[in-house]
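ZP: hey, is the nickel (II) ion complex queued? I don't see it on the tracker
AM: it wasn't, my bad. submitting now with these inputs:
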Amino acid sequence: MALLNILHFPDSRLRTVAKAVTEFDAELKQLVSDMFETMYEAPGIGLAATQVDRHIRLLVMDVSEARNQPRCLINPEIIESDGEEEMDEGCLSVPGFYEKVRRAEHIRVRAQNQDGEVSEFEAEGIEAVCIQHEMDHLEGKLFVDYLSNLKRNRIRSKLVKQQKQKTG
Ligand code: NI
């Protein structure tokens, strides 16, 4: 088990488009388990492989209050979506900032688990928001991309300043 380093906006590696997972091997299972550990430790409700600089289509999440419902989605696809809702979102790659983002309210998802088995399920509320947010990461997209340029630039300069203070 190991804690992984989480990339922070505006790191350009967060803009990488992830590739499909094709090997469901021990290395993948190790990465999944390290990502869960990193997400719970942060703490966060979701983490995409992109955020730990691994550019494959994998995300982990747990939106339960008791933090006892780990879910791992591999090669996820949204096959149906409807409705709209707006929720405050945050992101482990954009620490300390929360902004409203509009997403689909209900989604139907097809994904593989870490053994490669395919399943389909429906999600709504915070679970649907979390899946859409994490799937954006796999496309190199961040929730700040939905905000105005003014807001995004303000967040960028605050984070850059914080990072300089840490390293400098
Ligand atoms: Ni995020």
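AM: back. Helices lie at 26-41, 125-138, 149-167.
ZP: great, adding it to the tracker
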